Amino acid sequence: METSRKLIRKQSLEKLYNQLSATRKVYAPVIADDKQVEFKYNPGFAEVTFEHIRSTLSVKNIAFPKVENLFLYSNGKTESTITDIDLNKIPEVVLWGSHPCDNAAFDALRSIFEWDIKDEFFSKRMEKLVVIGLSCHLSDAYCFCTSVGLAPNSSKGSDILLSPLHNGDYQADILTEKGASIVNSFSELFESTSGEEVVLTTVKQKFDHEKVTSKLNGAFEHPFWVENSLRCIGCGACAYVCPTCACFDIQDETRGKNGKRYRSWDSCGFSMFTLHTSGHNPRNVQSARWRQRIMHKFSYMPDRNQSLGCVGCGRCSSGCPVDMNIAEQLEALQNI
Amino acid sequence: MSENIYKPYLMEIEQIVEETPDVRTFRLKFKNTAEAEKFSFKAGQFGEYSVLGEGESTFCVASPPTRNGYIECTFRKAGRVTKGLANLEVGDTVGFRGPYGNTFPIEEWEGKNLLYIAGGIALPPMRCVIWNTIDLREKYKDITIVYGARSVSDLVYKHELKDWAERPDIKLITTVDPGGQTPDWKGEVGFVPMVLEKAAPSSENAIAILCGPPVMIKFTMPVLKKLGFLDKDIYTTLENRMKCGFGKCGRCNVGKVFVCKDGPVFSYEQILALPEEY
Amino acid sequence: MARIGVFVCHCGENISATVDCGKVAETIGKLKHVAYSTDYKYMCSDPGQTIIKDAIKEHNLTGVVVSACSPRMHEPTFRKACAEGGLNPFLCEMANLREHCSWVHEKNDLTTEKAIDIVRSQVEKVKLNSALQPIKVPVTRTALVIGGGIAGIQSALDIANCGHKVVMVERSPSIGGHMSQLSETFPTLDCSQCILTPRMVEVAQHPNITLYTYAEIESVEGFIGNFKVKIRKKAKSLDEKICTGCGLCTTKCPQKKIPNEFEQGMGMRPAIYIPFPQAVPNRPVIDREHCTYYIKGKCKVCEIVCPTKAIRFDQPDEILELEIGAIVVSTGFDIKHADFFPEYGYGKYKDIIDGLQFERLASASGPTTGAILRPSDGQVPKNIVFIACAGSRDPAKGIAYCSKICCMYTAKHAMLYKHKVHEGKAHVFYMDIRSGGKNYDEFVRRAIEEDHVNYIRGRVSTIYERDGKLIVKGVDTLLGAQPVEIVADMVVLATAGIASSGAEELAQKLHVSYDSHKFFAEAHPKLKPVETNTAGIFLAGACQNPKDIPDTVSQASGAAVKVAALFSQSELTREPLVAAVNRSGPPMYSTCVGCFLCQSVCPYQAIEREDFKTRDGKIIKTVAKINEGLCQGCGTCVALCRSKSIDLQGYSNNQVYAEVVALLNEY
Amino acid sequence: MSDFEPKVVAFVCNWCTYAGADLTGTSRIKYASNVKIIRFPCTGRIDFMLLLKAFANGADGIIVSGCHPNDCHYTSGNFHAKRRWIMFKELMDFMGVDMNRITFSWVSAAEGAKWADVVNTTVTRLREMGPYVSYRDLVNKSVEEEVKNE
Amino acid sequence: MNNLIARAKELLENKIVQVIVGYEAGPTGVARPAFITNPAKADLLIYDERCVQNLAVYLTKPEVRNLGKMAIVATLPVMRSIMMLISEQQIFADNIIVLGVSSDGSLLDIADIKVMQAYIEKSDLGNPVKDRALLVELNKLSKEERFAYWQKELSKCIKCYACRQACPLCYCTRCTVEVNQPQWIPVQSNTHGNMEWHILRAMHLAGRCISCGECGRACPVGIPCHLLTMQLADEVHNYFKVYAGTSEKMSSVLSTFEPNDKESFII
Question: Which domain holds residue B60?
Answer without folding.
Answer: 9-100
